[in-house]
Each structure stands twice: as structure tokens, then as C-alpha cells.
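Support request, please re-run this one:
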Amino acid sequence: MKGVVLAGGLGTRLRPLTSITNKHLLPVYDQPMIFYPLQKLAEAGIRDVMLVTGGNSAGDFLRLLGDGSHFGLDTLNYAYQTGEGGIAEAIGLTEAFVGGDKFIVILGDNILEDSLEPYVETFRKQENGARILLKEVNNPRDYGVAEIEGDRIISIVEKPECPRSSFAVIGVYMYDDYAFEVIDTLQPSARGELEVTDINNAYLSAGKLKADIIEGWWADSGSSIDGLLESGIRARELRVRSKM
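Re-run finished. Output below.
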């Protein structure tokens, strides 16, 4: 199973901090933001990872992360996304790397308390399809929102004005290679991007989308300056607890 970390974007919500660097290189407590998703993948047993980035700071990732061995990875590959084509476009750039394997995608500004290992192991045993992670939040209108009934997802709507639930689709997605077939058919949204919600809805329409609700805290550290600060505070609390 392969891993993909997405670390592109302009980071406009974190300006002026991102005026001269990529947001994923900003510090969250005592280490760069990008360290957290890489550590989560390694802890879950993922050994081959591709990082997708872009912009003028792309070379800084190579200098910072090297071959990924510091994180326990066997290989750390890099892909460059030209422009702002969206999350689904970035995933599409990894097709040759992923091949026919299953893979897990994590957004580079997502920081989680929970281990990803149990979700990854469940997906390894899942015959095919996709699996996403959900978290109940206070501001669902800022995210893709999943309407659920029992253990089934009924719908996913991107940034709805009137959310049908408070369960946000966080930036962790697990797919088989059908995802690339879907990406090839997508059209840009009103934002001019290929949307990851459209990938998830394609799996949902095919009856091949499953979900898990995470229990621990989740931080979208790139959401705002306050979100970055909250992420640092939570990361510090987690680090302190791990040393007790």
C-alpha cells in the first residue's frame, strides 16, 4: 500500500506567513507542519510515499526531507503540480507511482491525535473501493460534509450552506486504482479545480465508499492563523503526554 502527501497550494489563509514560503514548511510547535503527516503514514506501516507540491518553495522540501529515511520510509518520491488544479488533480499526478496498489492520501496540513494504523489495516482487508475518515466539527460549512445513516454514507456535499450533518470529511482518503479512472472524467468546479469530493461521490454512487469516525482531535492547521496556533498547542499537549 502506497502513501501520498499533498503539500501544494498558495496558503492564502495564512498570509503574510506564506508570502515567502509554502505553508507546509511552517512550524507547528517544534517541527515543520509537513513532518506530522509523514510520521502518521510511517507509524501506520506505509513505507513508500510520494509528496506532491508546487510553487517556488518546492525545492525546500527536498532539502528538508531528503529520501525520507529519517521517518522510517523506504522511499520518498516527489511530484510537482503546476498551478492550482485542486486536490483531485494532485492525486492524479501520482498514478505512475501508485500503479495498481491501494493507497492512502493525506493532506499536508492535517494533524491527527489518532493513529492511522487501524484504519489502514481495515482498508487493506477491504476488497476494493474507498474509505474516508470523518470528524464531528462545529463548523461543517467549511468542509465537505457527509450525511450518514447508521454506518452508511448517504451523501457528501462540499462546503454546504445548510449542512445535513456535522461530520466533516477530513483530509485522509484511501482509494484503490479506480480513483484514477474517475479523475480522468472530472471537470473543473466553479473554483476551477478538480474536487476530491467528486472522487468520493463517484465511489459513493458505485456503492464502494466506506467511512470511519475518528475519536481523537483533528486539526486543519492550514485553515487560518488561529488554526495554526491551535495545532501548535495541541501538538505540544500530545508531545508532553507522550513523555509522561
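The mean pLDDT is 92. The chain is about 30% helix and 25% strand.
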